[in-house]
Amino acid sequence: MEDQEDKIAFIGQDENGKEAVFVTGKMEDSDTLSSRLDEADVQYGKEIPKEESPLLTFILSWVFPILMFLILGQLLTRYMQKKMGGPNAMTFGKSNAKIYVEAQTGKTFDDVAGQDEAKEALSEIVDFLHNPSKYAEIGASLPKGALLVGPPGTGKTLLAQAVAGEAKVPFFSISGSEFVEMFVGMGAAKVRDLFKQAQEKAPCIVFIDEIDTIGKKREGGMGGNDEREQTLNQLLTEMDGFDGKKGVVILAATNRPDSLDKALLRPGRFDRRIPVELPDLAGREAILKVHAKKIKVAPDIDYNAIARATAGASGAELANIINEAALRAVRCGHFSVTQADLEESVEVVIAGYQRKSAVISAKEKEIVAYHEIGHALVAAMQSDSAPVHKITIVPRTSGALGYTMQVEEGERVLMSREEAYNKIATLTGGRAAEELIFGSFTSGASNDIEQATKLARSMVTRLGMSKTFDMMALETVSNQYLGGDASLTCSPETAAKIDEEVLELIRSAHEKAIAILKENMEKLHELAHYLLERETITGEEFMEILKK
Ligand code: ADP
Ligand code: MG
Ligand code: ZN
After folding, report:
1. For 98-219+226-275, CATH number?
2. pLDDT tens per residue, range 88-120
3. What is the pTM of this model?
4. Is the CB of residue 315 less than 8 Å from the CB of residue 349?
5. Residues whose beta carbons lie less than 5 angstroms from ion ligand 3
6. CA of 423 to the centre of ligand 3 (A)
7. CATH, range 281-350
8. What CATH topology corresponds to 362-546?
9. Measuring CA to CA, which residue among 164, 151, 161, 159 is closest to residue 112?
10. Which tens digit of pLDDT belongs to each residue from 144-158?
């Protein structure tokens, strides 16, 4: 402990006659001092230096930390309980699977556009739950479970909610991830309880969203997730255990069907698969219209044009495009959403917002203009490539300095070898223009290179479009709905040959693009200067100049 100065306090009177305490600094504590003070009739005392009592020390260093631990522990348990849906979760009994009935989701099949096959399959289930006797008379029994599979954002959860709205029977809904975030042993207990409740309420529907979180393949040996496996085993047991005729139908949704444990897909479990794929042209148009109903739109909207420009977009992305357009309409002070709002919002979703403030030098702008016209010219000079819809050199927040948008006239499902090859040539067109005009290249083609390589590779390894490998499959794709990770299934020698073949494809397409641009040098200059001036040109303007 630090040296504590002895202080002596005096009680006297200050200059105003009020009582005051005076404290001196360190002072000799002599006899003469005290007698002199006594004579002067001054009250005085000495501050006694505080000593830590052993009890206090004990409390501070032992009792207090332990108390803190207890309190923290309590808080943590409360928090966990709350997360799991109330203190009941601790009793290992009651499940908190939410029960949805019609009025609560408020969704019907009308809210789901496109996906007619999925809706048909699901309405059969709804019908079965409404009048099981009709099926019983013929002796038909419905599958116990149906699995909705498809890429993210295609409306699987929405479809299940619509089923709840249509079915008018109790609807238990739980997400796979809810099972996983619980204590050990809880997942299995929850499954047991869920099925117990469901059987009491039959006829009813049980919906397990994102079933892949619990239904992943069980791994042999070490490193398995015991908790998840227990939950999965319990689910399998329950599915086998209940009587299908009672009228409990289990729906589940996933976007990684290939990672599901095979046991789940066995007959008697999820033996019916309902594909929920990305919408086609008509589907996209229908989805746009469903979502446009919720906002104020101008009377002359061409939904078909928007649908054509959004090939490959999911329902969720289309819903997002409509919302972005509505936001833009508000920003621009329009009274309702216009075609231009929608078109700009398609580009925002594809390429990010315009970056008007981006500083780009005149030289760079010129390079970007030639680059984009290079793509557009190569595309236009080849048959079997989609018409140019728009070319722009306004930078976007995604980092794109410009882009050329091509829009198919109708729906394309198949791609011929020529089309694939021409597409690679179009992708190399940007770099080809840079080489021809400026004699050097920039980093601007990085995305083109990536796409061209991907396409060339799949031509060789998966589409059977190379001479060397004919129709031999060289790659297997896992996770087809989530980007599709491809892995080679061949010897290292073959892998080297594949690389050669891919390089050869790209090189020859690149040469073709250079040849096309050399032939149309005048148009290249004219169009690039026009684009530089306007920054954005439409497909019609482009074709007009080209045909002149
Ligand atoms: P998933 O579960 O397949 O990932 P969701 O059902 O969560 O997809 O869909 C997300 C959102 O996208 C929905 O709430 C809806 O607004 C929109 N959406 C997706 N598909 C459709 C569709 N077919 N019709 C209308 N809206 C759709
Ligand atoms: Mg979902
Ligand atoms: Zn490019």
Report:
1. 3.40.50.300
2. 444 444 555 555 444 466 788 999 998 999 999
3. 0.74
4. no
5. 430, 448
6. 12
7. 1.10.8.60
8. Methane Monooxygenase Hydroxylase; Chain G, domain 1 (1.20.58)
9. 159
10. 889 999 999 999 999
